[in-house]
Amino acid sequence: MKMKVIIAKDYEDGARKAADIIEKIVRENPECTLGLATGSSPVGMYRELARRCREEGLDFSRIHSVNLDEYVGLDGTHDQSYRYFMNTNLFDHINIDKANTYVAKGTGDVAANLKEFNDVLDKTEIEIQVLGVGPDGHLGFNEPGETLYDGAHEETLDDSTIEANKRFFASKEDVPTHAVTMGMGNIMRAKRLIMIINGNKQEAATKLLIEDKIDPKCPCTFMRLHRDATVIIEQKLADEIGYKA
Ligand code: GLP
């Protein structure tokens, strides 16, 4: 199947459409592993899933999860770590067992953390991987480069990534310079992919993604090679980049 592009009326509509896709999977496979992502794009979807758990009995009690990435140098209690993000934006608001959630460790021995991360990924089948995209087209933290990686590894963050993510920190100097991330192979081996883009300096990458091409210097365009991939973009962003369904 070709990559599917869904145009949402606005952010909340996109969040509901994404939550519909996740809800269907959770109801059909109540013991599956969800691949999760951070960033501002999926926050609305997480809020909607939490509401459905609270008000409509959507059950996460047997669901497992694994996250895309984590900053090197931030402990899980740091308010900008991705473990903290997942707890506060989703896990604290649904009936998932936190012991069944995995976010790679950001502190301690990087090599040992990567070994653990790869071991988890090698024995996990991800039912659906949630994705966002960086302004430079990164997926997870797979930055553009001469080569891309198959498995989990450490990345040096591009200046544009640090620039984009500084909005969450007191200053640019506080943004970690390195991260551990799933590799492109881990992402592509997920059974389904869903990307949510809310248009935060991602116009150029989104334009490349929805053109009928793979740009080897723009990691997100590899998503087009997946046989079950969906991208949700807002009408506003579609208009900005001249995309018509
Ligand atoms: C960070 C994450 C990416 C995410 C990106 C998009 O860089 N490591 O995985 O896709 O943010 O962020 P946002 O959704 O805020 O635009």
Summarize the structure.
This protein has 245 residues and is an alpha/beta fold.
Please give a structural write-up.
There is one protein chain. By secondary structure, the protein is of the alpha/beta class. The protein has a single domain (13-195), classed as Rossmann fold (3-Layer(aba) Sandwich). The chain is built from 8 helices and 10 strands. It has a 7-stranded parallel β-sheet with strand order 1-10-9-6-2-3-5. α7 (203-210) links the parallel β9 and β10 (229-234). α1 (11-28) packs across α2 (43-56). The longest helix is centred in the N-terminal third of the chain and has 18 residues, at 11-28. 43% of the residues are buried. Residues 37-41, 68-69, 132-134, 140-141, 161, 165, 200 line the site of 2-amino-2-deoxy-6-O-phosphono-alpha-D-glucopyranose (GLP).
Could you give the topology of this structure?
Layout: E1 4-8, H1 11-28, E2 33-36, H2 43-56, E3 64-67, E4 69-71, H3 82-89, E5 101-102, H4 110-122, E6 126-131, E7 153-156, H5 159-165, E8 178-181, H6 184-188, E9 193-197, H7 203-210, E10 229-234, H8 235-240
Parallel strand pairs: 1-10, 2-3, 2-6, 3-5, 6-9, 9-10
Antiparallel strand pairs: 4-8, 7-8
Helix pairs in contact: 1-2
The structure holds 2-amino-2-deoxy-6-O-phosphono-alpha-D-glucopyranose.
